[in-house]
Amino acid sequence: MISGGGVVMGDAMAETVALAERLGCPVVNSYLHNDSFPASHPLWCGPLGYQGSKAAMRLISRADVVLALGTRLGPFGTLPQHGLEYWPTEAQDVGICGDAGAAAAAITRRLAGRELACDATRTQRAADIAADKAEWESELDDWTEETDDFSVDMIKQAAAESRRLDAPPPGAARA
């Protein structure tokens, strides 16, 4: 599931959490909407996009179905994105355009008491989510210092060299 700004603007957090829990699906935040799903929830996987979570990006890349809730699926602008029909002229297998909270609540009600195909893989999916998140957290933990040519030490050395070059020669009169 991709949870976006429409979840926040529509005050639909509870409905989104309930739907995610019913499906047992990983939830990623759309770009710049890290507040669209509780980061403390075990199904939360982090944000997509620039400086996002590798766990979120790995999980969404393996999805066979994506439920996008409260998102335009693009971070820039409010006009329809290329290749996405907001008002399709031909019926789609699944296409919902509506309030994020109302839609999530309606889907959750329709799924209540039903046996779903995803129920059979819920335990494995939870383990995969936890493993991807742990791997990303481990990678982040290893980032204790810069290791490229633009490290803090390199910047300090360049600043010291710049001060040395800008300094007046020894014994020069100061203005």
Automatic annotation (TrEMBL):
Organism in which the protein naturally occurs: Geodia barretti
InterPro entries: DHS-like_NAD/FAD-binding_dom, Thiamin_PyroP_enz_cen_dom, TPP_enz
Name of the featured protein: Sulfoacetaldehyde acetyltransferase
GO biological process, one term: L-valine biosynthetic process
Pfam families associated with the record: TPP_enzyme_M
Keywords: Thiamine pyrophosphate
Tagged with keyword Protein transport: no
GO molecular function: acetolactate synthase activity; flavin adenine dinucleotide binding; magnesium ion binding; thiamine pyrophosphate binding
An example Gene Ontology CC term for this record: acetolactate synthase complex
Family: Belongs to the TPP enzyme family.
Span of domain Thiamine pyrophosphate enzyme central: 1-82
